[in-house]
Amino acid sequence: MHTTQQKFEETAIIIKQEEIADDIYSMWLHTEQIAAHAKAGQFVSVYCKEGSRLLPRPISICEIDKENKTLRLVYRKAGAGTAEFSGYGAGETLRLIGPLGNGFPLDKGYKKVFLIGGGIGVPPMVELSKQLPGEKIVVSGYRGGDLFLKDELSRHAELVVATEDGSAGTKGNVLDAIKENGLTADAIFACGPGPMLRALKAYAEEQGIDCYLSLEERMACGIGACLACVCKSKDVDAHTNVKNKRICKDGPVFAADEIEL
Residue 259: what pLDDT? Predict the structure, then answer.
């Protein structure tokens, strides 16, 4: 059941920003409210200062430090908006709305969970690995050997790596790494590109284990009003009366059996 949660619009101050891999940037921000209310698996919408780019860019939250009121965003420089963000340094400000969407369920009592990130789906696994109780195995999929966030991921969980080019860990994808290492778990929490999520959904069904997927989607408003980021669902949505769910508002995290990929 989706509950309405508080979201805040505020001007956040950049504490530091660095490029941690090719075109992958890590930014720590000080926020008055968003960090205090954020959960693992949620995201923020970040506004550009360049006036022609009206729509905010959704970026998943990598780490939350409630005590110091800070958030870490790790994102890929992919277009004009993220290129703009990557040029900012300490002391500059950004307008954010958040926290948005739902997070991963932390209270299901699983003994052992796969936390699976692919590409830019890797960053949300950092906070999740800190907050989720029980045993965790992080399976991270990268294109090449630039294993960003490797140290942070291995701090709170066992880390297994897959690379497309075979330069580190298992050559192949995250499922190849699970099979090669003979790994098992009671549930899957994953974020990454569509083909990876489809494969994990099928694998979870085959294994008879629970699976929660965080969908990556280009969003427009981020608050469920514009219906630009819908996915197909099993049930009829009360808002639109069709078999759709809004990724930004009903998700981005869904039980895999709720949605069609």
Answer: 77
* Residue whose token pair is 């830019």: 120
Residues forming beta bridges with residue 5, ordered by sequence position: none
Is residue 86 within a helix (H) or strand (E), and if so which, with residue range?
helix 80-86
Q: For 258, list phi and psi in degrees, rounded to 5.
A: -85, -20
Assess whether pLDDT exceeds 60 at residue 65.
yes
Q: Tokens 């420089």 belong to which residue? A: 77
Asked if pLDDT for residue 216 goes beyond 60, the answer is yes
CA 130 – CA 64 distance, rounded (Å)? 10
Q: By the 8 A CB rule, do 213 and 197 touch?
A: yes
Secondary structure class of 238 (helix, strand, coil): coil
Q: Which amino acid is at 103?
A: G
Quick count: other Cβ atoms within 10 Å of Cβ 206? 8
Measured distance CA(243)–CA(62) in Å, rounded: 31
C-alpha to C-alpha distance for 146 and 50, rounded to whole angstroms: 31
Q: What's the average model confidence in pLDDT over 188-209?
A: 94
Find all residues with CB under 8 Å of 149, minimum gap 6, and list them: 20, 62, 74, 122, 123, 125, 126, 140
